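Would you mind writing out the residues of a protein together with its fold in token form for me to study?
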Amino acid sequence: MKSLGLEQGKKLIKLARKTIELAALTGQKLIDNPQDPIFLEDSGAFVTLHSYPSKELRGCIGFPEPVMPLYKAVIEAAINAAFNDPRFPSLTIKELDKVIVEVSVLTSPEKIIVKNREELKEKVKVGKHGLIMRNSYSSGLLLPQVPVELKWNSEEFLENTCEKAGREKDCWKKQETEVYSFEAIVFSEKEPKGEIEKKTSSSLG
């Protein structure tokens, strides 16, 4: 996992928020030239928005695979989470000071190999792992913090990731379903534009 400290996390949160504010106010995409070399490394990343103070989800989009430099992934994910998440209307200017910004930096997904599908319940660690379900025609992803927030056990986590992929909740039991896990470093505002905290996957549970 990338060695990202709190100060770097603060920069990523500010990058995401500045991206969203610029797009909301002017319709323009932020152009950034980071000096920190770690931001230039390809990495998976998600940006999640929560309404404040309710903490309800307001948008979440990202890239599970390391397909672009981290800073670009955060910029693209921020725009999509705020304005292109099909589950929600576009964020309005009035909401800019009423959302919490969260950035998750992901490790590369790794396929979980088991002889018996029931073993997945033991392999998947709530609070440590994020999950991806894939087959030939669909995929779904849930970040490590989701089952912690919703108090799911590992089986519920597997079931809900199946449903996120648009499939029946027991799809994880079928051999044609590929199950991948990943970990994350998560940075989040405690309140809009407020103090920022850092959590790794291992500290979410």
Summary: Residues 110-182 form a domain with the Dna Ligase; domain 1 fold (CATH 3.30.1490.150). The mean pLDDT is 95. The helical segments are 6-26, 70-83, 120-123, 145-149, 154-164.
